[in-house]
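Person: At home tonight, work slowly through the protein below, taking as long as you need, and write a paragraph about the fold.
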Amino acid sequence: MHQQQDKDISIIWTSLLMKSVGLWLAADQNEQRRRDFALVYTAGALFTIVCIGCRDIYFTWGNFVDSVYISCNNLYLMIVVLKVSVLYAHRTEFYKLIKFTQKNFWCPSCDPHEQLIVEKCKRLCIILIIIINICVQGTCTGYMVTPILENMGKNESDRILPFNLWVDLPVSLSPYFEVIFIIQILCVYHVGVCYICFDNLLCILNLHVASQFRILQHRLRYLDDAVKDQMIDRKDAKLSGYAIECNMKLKGCVRHHQTLTNYCKNLDNIFTMMVLGQILFFAAVICLVGFQLFLVDTHPSRKFSLVLNFVGTLCQLLMFTYSCDDLIQQSLDVGDAIFAGPWANLPMDKVGIEVRKNLIFIIVRANRVCFLTAGGFFPVSLETCTAALSTAMSYFTLLKQSSVKIESD
């Protein structure tokens, strides 16, 4: 298990981010103390940046462009607080789910074809995680670089921070400015870590569960290959004996299918509210970031940060909905894989009839697809991606009309 995980960059990186948040497995008491400290630091960073964001929106209310910028920042804070709160509330179930995943999904397989499926899943996870993390880290860097560039050539009393404090203190003077600047940037980067780590993990879990459904399909098809080898000798005794062997293997496939369906239910119970918040967040933040990017004249460094933010959000929406859609499709394809199985070649004796009945039960159960829901309201798929983009475009049009009206007044 550990050898397989050590080679998976996506799992290593995601677990590292989860450890920095404080919501990951601990091997002993020393690790648990480090997790508790990281969780306290996360709570402190979120509390600090939320207070700054609330005061900022309060004092800038009435300035349309600044309010849009600050509202976009506050949306990130709200979704991060939701993610941390939801996962902390379900931390017991979450830790059990991760232990089960490490034991059953992230371990090497003896079958070369099954190992190839897992390796393909790993490569896809690595590509998606790298792209999204580059965009998020670039966005966080923009919050740091923009005030540095704007402060060049200014007097000490005119320097600006990444976020306005709105306090009657000399925050622009040294050493207060440097201390507050470092605190705000640390909070920004930690918010970025909290924002991306949960989505990375959910994407990895979805894709690995989908790969397990692919492995199940392969096992169902492999029964037919074994039967064809036995069809060289048409003796009824050998066919009946092999029907018993197929029935035993089929029962193992049924148990595997039941395990995967129960796993998907547990996954949905833990992440369903987080998924709902994420879908609503995507529609709103694409609108706000697009408004700042295309309709507002901003500093070039902030413009570059907005570009990364916009691209990263679109990629994240696609990654998020694709992983959920892949889970739906692969769970549904289990029923189609049955038709490549041994049902046509088995003898019509007691065991053969029992195997056929079990295959029918699997087909019926496979028609009830496994999926993740957004708060229990609707399943998430690629159609959700198009719906979120359509909603964001509608919000963008409304926001554009509002800005034109305000400027004309």
